[in-house]
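Good morning C.,

I know you're traveling, so I'll keep this short. The sequence:
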Amino acid sequence: MGGPGDPPEGTPEGAPGGGEDEYRSVVFDESFVRAARLKEYSAQERIGDHAPAVRRAPPLRRGLSRQALVLVLLIAVAFGTAIYMGVRHPYQTPAAREAAEPLRMTVIPLAPEGKVPGSADTAYLYERSPAAQFKSGAEGVPLPASRSTAHFSDSQVVGALTTAKDYIVRSALDPGVLMGGEVRAVRLLLDPDQLDQFDQSFARPTADGRHAPTGWLVRFDPSRAELADRKVRVQGTLQAAEVDSSTLEVTADHTLVYALRPAGAGAKAEVSLFTVRRELHFRFDRDDLRLHQGRLVVSYVQAGPLSCAEDSTNHLRPLLAGQTAKEGGPAGTDPYATGSATALCGTLATSAQPRV
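The tokens, ready to paste straight into the viewer:
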């Protein structure tokens, strides 16, 4: 007799022996059963007329869910936007940053035609001078209404103007700087490429049009004069313009008036006025704007009353109330020499002095 698993007639000829061997390769695991497309109706469901014995099961949901598809789509859109903005950036970045050009400076002393007028009343001097309507301190350096340029936004233009104003305030209105004190606050506003020139100017002052401390800032000889009024009178303008797609230029033109008296003379000493006309040209690239720094490329200064016979490279040595200019002037200049700048001296107009 055949075994329990054999057909009644025995194993067909040619078929593999044993029922188990015939169906061994067919596996009906749980996942296969769940995935079957045909499902038998329940007895209750088959009561209805013409109800088929089986029904087709809904297909299993394969692939990504709707939330996953949305997430993938959002990532793709963000990635594409980032690439587009990188290619179509509104501001052109220069391939390489050019080294800052050195500062070119000119300091012209203005000699008085007679005695320097003075008074014990500082307010009286100002009222009788062309500076009567000037504002005091930083209020005299207002920022103009600014506009964006072809390659720089309005905020970038404002940043350039603000840095230029801060330089003027620190270099020409700070009492500590004016009296020969610490200059670090001024130095911090300069492009790093100009720091060597700045440091050399103070370590080894030279009248070569490149290394005069008085070309960088205003400072008086503290052994000769002191401030009689810390509120310096100022009037002038700031203007910004685009030089090229990577550079902004700010031109500052200001007249500053200082009330001075002899050093250590006390409050009762006569006071005189000292005038500085200062034109500065700043340039800013995008790194400068980001770091609140700038490159000072031109400094043109006229100052008086001074004596042309005295050196104004390191400190300004003002002529005070009742004093007159010494005779003589700067030594002759050799136009063929390349190591020194042309020596200049002017005359301080009587109309620029207080009428006392």
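Safe travels,
E.
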